[in-house]
Design brief:
The protein is mainly beta and about 375 residues long. It has a single domain, classed as 6 Propeller (Neuraminidase). Helices cover about 10% and strands about 40% of the residues. The protein has helices spanning about 5-20, 65-70, 195-205, 305-315; strands spanning about 35-40, 50-55, 60-65, 80-85, 90-95, 95-100, 110-115, 120-125, 130-140, 145-155, 165-170, 175-180, 215-220, 230-240, 240-245, 255-260, 265-270, 275-280, 285-290, 300-305, 325-330, 335-345, 355-360, 360-365, 370-375. The strands form 6 sheets. Strands 6-10-9-8-7 form a 5-stranded mixed sheet, with no helix packed on it. Strand 7 and strand 8 (about 120-125) form a beta hairpin. The longest helix is centred in the N-terminal third of the chain and has 19 residues, at about 5-20.
Length: about 375
């Protein structure tokens, strides 16, 4: 075979593979979304990337200009925060942070609320600085008002700008955080690059489709000296894009999503804090956050059936209305079965980053559109 013909075959093969990875040409059929409605669309700043249950029908939701920060950080980015969403009253409020250091601001990505410690862990990005883990103490007053007390903003030499995604608490003073991209984001965002730098960054991005370079960090921090850096090490490696992470109430198991690999990994958490895989589940759509449902013991996962639409939306195309869904994972011994629970058309929010049961409702969040999509449990 001539060199030119070989190159042509490789180019065509790459194009086909890329189209499959981005779901180009895939047909998606929305279902069970006709009664869904938006909550908090006029209150939220930016998307509702991650959702966790505080108690009963009350949710904690991360909000911020995540899409602008990833791609267009040279533009004006509004400060983000964590919101309280009450599904009984359909009210949404931004939870204030008390005793924060001067100049403090957050751009939340993944969040985790610990029933054990009442701490909220927030993966927080910055336009210029490396990522930090913001630790907040959640307090509720008799009136029902929620406030945060600032505890720490933890850094590590392993944290790059924009490289972290989601987080859980292990034992007190310990957390696990996913690394979803291996190379730090360029200052000013991806779209701020030009020329050779843009080409090199694009190659680095595409390499995530072929080379598994991300994973999960296990970190400890000194609660008596929160001004100190976290001590972190790479606990898991070999992920194409480590994304959502969840744990059970006993903290004896950990569940990690590989968004690009379209795989969910299941681990036992040993007394040493090490993670030992006991099951792996391959699914069809691209995946995002994973949550543990305390009522049923099931796991719920946000899905992105058309990945290219999600990328267009993150890039700033407000007309890229891609569908998003919810997978429900039911345990069968040491294995899990996946159910395609619902798919939203994308007419209200694009893609589904986070999907969670909350009483009689399903709450769905997206990276880029204001508010939370709420649907009745079926």
């Amino acid at each position: 075979m001539k060199i030119s013909a070989l190159i042509a075959v490789l180019v065509v093969g790459f194009a086909v593979y890329l189209a499959l990875q981005l779901d180009i040409g895939t047909t998606v059929h929305p279902h069970h979304d006709s009664e869904c409605f938006l909550v908090g669309g006029k209150v939220f700043v930016g998307g509702s990337e991650d959702i966790t249950v505080y108690k009963n029908n009350r949710l904690l939701v991360s909000g911020g200009d995540l899409d602008k920060l990833l791609c267009h950080a040279n533009r004006t980015i509004r400060p983000g925060g964590v919101y309280s969403v009450n599904l009984d009253t359909l009210s949404v409020t931004l939870i204030p942070v008390i005793s924060a250091p001067k100049g403090f601001k957050m751009q939340p990505h993944g969040i985790f609320y610990s029933n054990a410690s009442q701490l909220v862990y927030v993966v927080s990005h910055h336009e210029i600085l490396d990522d930090q883990i913001v630790v907040l103490k959640l307090d509720e007053y008799a009136s029902g008002e929620l406030t945060f007390t600032f505890k720490a903003a933890l850094s590590s030499p392993l944290f790059g700008r924009g490289t972290l995604n989601d987080i859980i608490e292990g034992k007190p003073g310990e957390f696990y955080v996913t690394e979803w991209i291996a190379e730090p984001l360029p200052e000013g965002g991806q779209k701020h690059l030009h020329g050779v730098k843009k080409v090199m960054h694009t190659i680095q991005q595409l390499s995530a489709l072929f080379v598994p370079r991300t994973g999960v960090f296990r970190c400890t921090w000194d609660q008596r000296h929160p001004e100190r850096q976290a001590t972190c090490s790479k606990e898991l490696d070999g992920y194409y894009m480590a994304n959502g992470i969840a744990t059970n109430p006993e903290r004896s198991e950990v569940y990690v999503v590989d968004a690009v690999g379209r795989t969910i990994h299941f681990y036992r958490r040993l007394s040493s804090g090490s993670l030992q895989e006991f099951y792996k589940l391959k699914v069809t759509p691209s995946l995002d956050n994973i949550e543990y449902d305390y009522g049923t013991g099931k796991l719920t996962v946000g899905t992105i059936p058309l990945a290219y639409k999600e990328l267009q939306r993150i890039d700033g195309d407000i007309n890229a209305n891609g569908p998003g869904g919810m997978l429900v994972l039911t345990r069968r011994g040491d294995t899990f079965e996946a159910e395609d629970y619902l798919i939203h058309s994308g007419s209200i929010i694009t893609g589904i980053a986070s999907a969670i049961f909350a009483g009689d409702w399903v709450a769905l969040g997206g990276c880029c559109d204001n508010g939370v999509l709420v649907c009745p449990v079926r």
